[in-house]
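From the pipeline queue, job 12 of 40. The input is one protein chain; the requested action is below.

Action: predict structure.
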Amino acid sequence: MESFVVIGLGRFGSAVAEKLCQSGHQVLAVDTDEKVVQQMADRVTQAVAGDCQDLDVLRALGVKNMGCAVVAFSNDIGRSILVTLNLKELGVPRIICKARTATHEELLRRIGADQVVFPERESGWNLAQALSNREILNYITLTEGYGIVKLEVPLAWVGKTIGELDIRRHYQVNVIATQRNGENIQPNPDKNYCFQEGDLIYSLGSTETNDRILDLE
């Protein structure tokens, strides 16, 4: 179990906080809006109303003992930067920030943010990637030019095993999961897994190598 503080309980922050708590982690959720805090009270370990621009507020909440902080708002760039600086001052080992613009991202990185995310932009990229090729059922961006594609197994692979195809060496992708007949996803299929027509696969690789799989008959 890890400990997280999520600062800012808009749609993004609330979703992050709730999911982390559901995954068994200790989550402190903080927002200046008491009404929002009350709504989150039974969804996280602890929900508190407070202004994290005030370093003393963060100290009182014990944020310095948290393993990771998520600055989950981006509408007020100045406030976002000040909160991030406060978290750095307290020595929080990992800080993840939501950014609004490229300039905002650069400023956050310069003051010590370990990771900067653009949830809306990344969701848009994933949708555009999926829409651009009808064979793709879903696309998840991991980093620029690298992601996970969900697609129906190519006919050229049907009746063959992962080992026979030597997929990693020949195609430079990893089949990290499969799904058959709408059943539960099977993670990390071994080399003896034999593909059947209609199987769904999750391919991890670069955009270029995943495109090669899509080009197979």
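Job complete. The chain has nine helices and eleven strands.
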